[in-house]
Amino acid sequence: MVAQPKALLELYPNDVPANLQLGTLYWRAGETNPDFFRDAQDIAKKILSTNANNVDALILSGNASAGLRDYRSSVDLFEQALMLDPENVHAFVSLGTSQALQKNYAEAEQAFLKAREFDPKNKSVLISLANFYRSTGDHVKAEGTFRAALSIFSQYEAAEATLEKEPAAGSPYPQVDFFLGNIDAKKRLIDQAISHYQKSLTLHSAYLPARVALAEAFLNKGRIADCRQEVRKVLEIQPNFAPARLLKASLDARDGNYPAAERELSALATEEPKNASVYRQMGLYYDSRGRVADAEKSLAKAFELQPDSEQILRELIFFCIRRKQTDRAIQTISSIPDDKKQAFHYELLGRVYSEAGQSKNAENAYKKALEKDPHQAGAGLALFSEEILNGRTDEAVGIGWTGKKQPCKSVGLRRQGSSSREPGKSCGRQGTLWAGFEGGSKLRRSF
């Protein structure tokens, strides 16, 4: 990958464009080996030692710093680049990425929007902005931005078709349908998600994230043979691709081949000790096998490695609820700083309080969720249920599924067990409106 620029540098060691080309290649390779980030950093520093105002070298140095998780330095470098070139789209995108990684979401959004302002039809900018919205849970904006990107890609695609060219392998084209598929999957629109993943693979058949997502969608639909086929295709292309190996372990466990599943999971934990998905899957596996202590340890480790994951947090909290560990569940959610909490955090907190029989606290948590996101259907539904079950029908009938006060002619609610309960006492949620709602957002239990 780097042989040609290296050879060029041997002939022209002070050739800045060649140095930048090599540094960029090192930076891209840093995802596989952090040492490459250091190589990229060294090249950027070499250029900056002779020209401190080289914008491209500043951006390269910032990207390398971000790769090494020195986000504060990366932000400083990107801001220096923007002082020299205030309309540099690449610097704004990189700045937004570093700010987002530090959870400075307002500053990150501002940087991404600046990039879009200066180049509204830049495909990479749109994808970066859409990914940002998706990572912060703003799925409405994410979907809108992805669709804006898709409309632009379609124009390029039509132009290439006129020239009788296929979209280039590795182009951003497959990413848009892949991410739209993820949004549909989160909404539990699995058939639509499958359609998007298949469109993505039509554009780039070796785009592994889409193929693994398609396999997961097939698994969710119970299409086991199709799931196996997609997993085989991925492993033929890249035998060590962790997401596919996790799915294979799921399928082995489903078939009762527990030794094979455990070998795969243990191998992945050894090879990728900081991969939260591995520990999440181990937790689900151990839970399905009745190994409670191992399940708890694995899910806690997954949450430790990826505390921003809604899916992992949901699975850990519901595990605690099933084990009657509501105090621990409350403590886990409460440990998240208030300025980092999103609507789903408060929805989960309400659920735990409800299971613990703390009805008033549950209602307050659901209301907090609705303040964060008025369209949080889970919180609206749960708040409605709490008020009905506590006998406050006048309040409940005015609440729609989004939690907003609105006219309502009549409400019918039937639950198993007693028709009323005393405030503050748990009545068991299996018979309430929560039944069947435990999954939250795209909660796939593979085992």
How would you summarize what this structure contains?
The chain is an all-alpha fold and 447 residues long.
Number of helices, counting only DSSP H or I runs of 4 residues or more: 23
Unreliable stretches (pLDDT < 50, length at least 5) are: 155-171, 396-445
In percent, how much strand structure appears in the residues?
Answer: under 5%
Label the overall shape: globular
Calculate the terminal CA-CA distance, rounded to whole Å. 40 Å
Beta strand count:
0
Question: What proportion of the residues is helical, as a percent range?
Answer: 55-70%
Radius of gyration, rounded? 25 Å
Structural class: mainly alpha
Order of helices and strands: HHHHHHHHHHHHHHHHHHHHHHH
Strand count, sense and barrel status of the largest sheet are: none
Mean pLDDT: 79
Report on the architecture of this protein.
This protein is mainly α. It has helices at residues 3-11, 16-29, 35-50, 55-67, 71-84, 89-101, 105-118, 123-135, 139-162, 173-186, 190-203, 208-220, 224-237, 242-254, 258-271, 276-288, 292-305, 310-322, 326-334, 343-355, 359-372, 377-389, 393-396. Helix 4 packs parallel to helix 6 and helix 7 (105-118) packs antiparallel against helix 8. The chain is globular. Mean pLDDT is 79; it is low at 155-171 and 396-445.
Keywords for this structure?
447 residues, mainly alpha, 68% helix, globular
